[in-house]
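input
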Amino acid sequence: MALLDFLNKRKKSQDNDGAEMSFIDHLEELRWHIIRSLIAVAVAAIVVFIFIRDIVDNILFGPTDPNFVSYELFCRISRAIGLGDTVCVTPVEARFQSNTMTGQFISSFTIAFLGGFIVAFPYVFWEFWKFVKPALTPAERKKTKNIVFWVSLLFFTGVFFGYFILTPFMVNFYFNYKLSDKVVILPSFSDYLENLIYLTVGIGVLFQMPLLIMLLAKVGIITADFLRRYRRHAIVMLLIAAAIITPTTDPFSLSIVTIPLYLLYEAGIKIAAKINKRQDDRMYSDV
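output
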């Protein structure tokens, strides 16, 4: 039913523009949006695959390198705020194994596809937005101006945050945590790749929260008071989201994911409060 209502809105919009489209026409248009998005991802994936070895050595395994930029950055920040070497992260010597004959071969395609998706994300969302936009009213289109830019910015910010901040802490914590000296830490490459994907692409998706709150506030679905009233419920939902993103649900992993998500939620409250204030001022001025 939701799909039919959405397509009916698109049809009315097309009718107002003088071009009538049937239900099948809408589905055909959606199909081409999807095809063009997949082509963009495929082209970017091919480029990633061509340079797969350099990408794996220099980017994928970057957070495991003792000279990784984040390790020096953590120390500088720690000393700058008067904490000495408290926040300094001791680099570890990480080694990984591949215990299946086809493991590395399959992983190369996973890396190529995800790399292609990250690179092509702005275009993929633009294709999605082109399909959704006709169903919006002129007022809604005005309120969502530059949405492709902001969605892409938040996505890449989340990816960079997961890669440069969360992943180094994850690598350092797990390689230094030992129950016994008799246990040798030698994780599989696929395990590392899975964690890296969750902490980059997953965080990139969840970083859309302030924008989502902004859009819902602009159309009047939620208010800042509503978000404040249900803050405790939101924390539980964020913990669940963090548990889904992090393959291991230990307190450390949950903390490094939940804290930035909670800060984004608080930022969303401030954004909603400003929007609500402008809406109230506009309403009083019209009276």
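quick obs: Residues 53 and 108 are 9 Å apart (CA to CA).
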